[in-house]
């Protein structure tokens, strides 16, 4: 899970201990101190600027430091008292040109005239077109801190993507039209370079995996699954493929990747189910079928959540009960297993989608709160559908019936209640895949990511 870094700058004309006519300092240092502490408590790393800024020179010096500090994802400009906006906006504009985020925070209260300083800056930045978020709220208010931390997390994700590399092993899988990418668009929107490798290199790497490496992997298998899979050529190839895939991703310095799976690799060597399950478990952003949009969604959820991410088919939608079954073709991080369906081994089992077969994972996702989301394109423009979701386990006496409904009971199942208008969600969904992330705080962070990157959010 990420830890965003924010620069914290207090601004105001009446500073340096200057008091109002009642004898009280205009800037309340206790409020400033509590505000910084609240951000740290929310998981942000705070880099303070010691001087309260008011003049053009002070603003230029402070924002230049924040601009050139690669650690910083966002600057929090905290209203200490009123200010002459014209003295600050040029330096803020220059800083914002880097693509880093700007947030104005005004702590309520009549004493000190903080709202005046906050609103004049907000209006000034709107006037000259500097993207920013304006937050008015107390340091002790959970919703206020969530708004700030979510925006910082979104800014961090945006910065992570900048100058990153997405790898693709093989080409488009299963004839997908709704997951393809325009490399120029990805560079323009996100700063992401797309690099490709043929799956033959992956097969060679898998065959080069040593018996010692396979043996060394056994303790982790037993920890995650309670046992090791049966020893045969199909299962061994699945393990080899995972170990090789991790090696190549690290060797090529891919920040995230997608893999064709089939046709090709799943027919010639092994289905990718187990390898993808383990890469998700390891915290890699990934997808199958050469689906670039799902891969980016998985990467975002992975970075934002404390739990690994599950992506699978929206296999059944019960609109009346707002229930969705997410069933992946054997790929799911094993640590997401719940009480009713512990992680176990199975087989890919569909010869028309990978004749070579392969080891896969079976489980039922554990209960929790989270989101369903997926990035997509409509007429070449990015949008992201995002909805809150509750993951549940069916009653114990009905679980076998529910597993057999799809005809493939041995693939991983996630039972989800979507908190949205189901018709609007389905109308806007752009693929058969759903990406499931655990954590109620993912919802505002994804919305903020859309804002800072220019993606249209769809909130059904």
TrEMBL record:
Pfam families (UniProt xref): AraA_central (PF24856)
Domain L-arabinose isomerase central: start-end pairs: 189-304
Keyword list, A-Z: Carbohydrate metabolism, Isomerase
A Gene Ontology biological process term: D-arabinose catabolic process
Protein's recorded name: L-arabinose isomerase central domain-containing protein
Keyword Nucleus assigned: no
Species in which this protein is naturally found: Candidatus Sulfotelmatobacter kueseliae
InterPro entries for the chain: AraA_central, Fucose_isomerase, Fucose_isomerase_N/cen_sf
Source organism phylogeny: Bacteria, Pseudomonadati, Acidobacteriota, Terriglobia, Terriglobales
